[in-house]
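ok trying this again, last paste got cut off
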Amino acid sequence: MTGASAEFADHFGARASAYVAARPTYPTALFHFLAILSPSTKQAWDCATGNGQAATALAARFAAVLGTDPSVDMIAAAQPHPRVKYATTAYDTKLAPESVGLVTVAQALHWLDLEAFLAEARRVLVPNGLLAAWCYSNCRVTPDIDAVFDHFYTVTIGQYWPRERRHVEDGYRAIALPIDEYAVPPFEIIEEWTLAAYLGYIRTWSGVAKCIAARGEQPILDFETAVRAAWGEPRRSRTVRFPLHFRVGELR
């Protein structure tokens, strides 16, 4: 693994800077909702923080945020914020017991050692503390673009997805979490992207990286050619929507 802890596979560290530039942004209202639900806004822990996108958004409503990730490359590229501290670790937060009102995992629950993660979450959460995990599934643009996307996702690179990807596809419902679950409003990610931004996002996929390693660039170039034909004027911005799926509740 390049620049990673041995505790889990680093699927993204080698492309950390591209990941920071290309990944979609979570809606601000989501973090307001989580802060209202949380029994304390003194501190939050964002596990598997990646580029720190969720951690820095949490800092708008929490006095202090710890973002942890075992990837050295990801932490090096993470977004700085005066109320966010980053640490290169998977689960050993060094936080005081019962010091955190909210623990979050954004688009990463499927990569975690669940037992180790939950043990640390239980240790650091205040009584009635909140655990919030979420992921986003395949984006939608237009029927023509989506048809090219779906064929590429399922047929071209289907065999190259890590097996954990299935948990994203089912919205984390199959992951057993010991929480008293809350209903969450229907948040979604909405981006206005040019063709370059859309293709840049797809280039960050772990399945794409494995496909390139096995077969070279040509399958990706063929996909990009097909998307260009469906997109039209490449500088034209299109609305790109990502459905969000949540597991939010008090950790038992």
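PB: full thing came through this time. The longest helix spans residues 143-156.
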